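re: ur question from earlier - yeah i can do the single chain one, its not a big deal. heres the input i used so u can compare w yours
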Amino acid sequence: MHTIRIPLTLAAFALLHVGATAHPEFQAWSQTNSGRFVNCAMCHAHPDGPEGVKAGQIGSLTPAEMLVLNEARAAFEPGKKIESPILNKFGNSIVEQLGRREVIALRPTPGALATKLDPAHDIDGDGLGDEREYREGTDPLDAQSGNPAALFRINFARQRFHILMIVLATACALYGLNHLLRGLHRVASRAQKSQAR
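and the output i got, formated as tokens:
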């Protein structure tokens, strides 16, 4: 029984391994377009991509994970929820939004991926859409990664009420402190005058 299992596992691995490679065109386009260093971790579970034996790479997958990978690879049409063990949330989101067939069709023109993704989709919730982060070469899974000026504007707009309250509280505190110091100064001046008499 053990001797049958090993060849079957190897055969399944070989079948699933064929065509399960990364699409480096997307990473290369994002890096060239943005001028930033972009590695495979933009879409994949491992920064070196899906090939290899490290965690998040095909060679490290258990038979159960291989079945999940096979299911994800069969998601040719958009709308199917997938959780590929070799992709991260952004990579899975791309396949969910477009379907694997469209992703493969976009390989010759990787810049078109940005126009196909939903601009309102924002996995990390930083206010910069995933399609923008792909164009700008920032991490769509890290709310701290993004154009600093854009993140400042977005966070300022989100927090403007709190900022206004802090400014008002500070102004009131400074106003009150100023009057308190003036009052103490008057009391001290009166005390000095009465001692001088």
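Residues 2-145 form one domain. not sure if urs matches, ping me
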